[in-house]
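Handout, section B. The chain below has 319 residues.
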Amino acid sequence: MNLSCSQWQDNSEPVKHFAFAKFSAAAEQCLLLFTLILLMFLASLMGNALIALAICTNPTLHMPMYFFLANLSLLEIGYTCSVIPKMLQSLVSEARGISREGCATQMFFFTLFAISECCLLAAMAFDRYMAICSPLHYATRMSRGLCAQLAVVSWAVGCVVGLGQTNYIFSLNFCGPCEIDHFFCDLPPILALACGDTSHNEAAVFVVAVLCISSPFLLIIASYGRILAAVLIMPSPEGRWKALSTCSSHLLVVTLFYGSGSVTYLRPKASHSPGTDKLLALFYTVVTSMLNPIIYSLRNKEVKAALWRTLWKKALTRG
């Protein structure tokens, strides 16, 4: 057992504290990883905050598509902030411990933001479907009220699933060892520390993951199936290109998010390994959150122009 664990807990008593496993015994590797993750974390925070600020302060972007994009940026900020600070601390400090309550809190917020993002990406696909397949009724059907309801439902589903999953897992007993072979309190590595037979718990977590990942993904597939059918019958090549270009950023974000999430949570337990799980965790917690603002700003002229206006206003204010 890790020394930091044994300082807190004897195996004969229920575990009340955990410790994250050390990434590497080589201090140079830990410092390098710390630097890379910190830079990506800061880039993610800055990019997502700028996008949310640009959308909120530019009236030209007060449209459904950008309303959902601002919500996505806020989710990404919460997503990374729930995991990365503790991960960075564990990389360069011997204080790698976390209390049972702290671990449960981290799991709740991580699950909340992740599931909310699944639902919000489905809402964004529905918005694109309405814009392309029903352009004449788009303004009336995608009203502010409906957009707000879709966003609230996305956040609410994430909250309910986060509370349910966290309570379900932390109702189990943890008898030790107390070392989490991961960077944060994710579902599979915490379940691995529980006492006794956890097959039913693992099955329940898998079912919830399937429902929460697959259901929104199927809605996205259905929306883009209708969009593709509508685009193929458009008489103008320019119209087809414009319709597809408005969807390209969202499709790329969906591919990154659902691809990494599916590989992590829907593959068989026998294929899990700590090394692979950690690499995937770094990708879907750090890399995708950093790439999303880059994808939307580079591929969307309106967002890019709004970002420049926001940065210019800030520069003038400071001057």
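Note. Residues 27-314 form a domain with the Rhopdopsin 7-helix transmembrane proteins fold (CATH 1.20.1070.10). Compare this with the example in section A.
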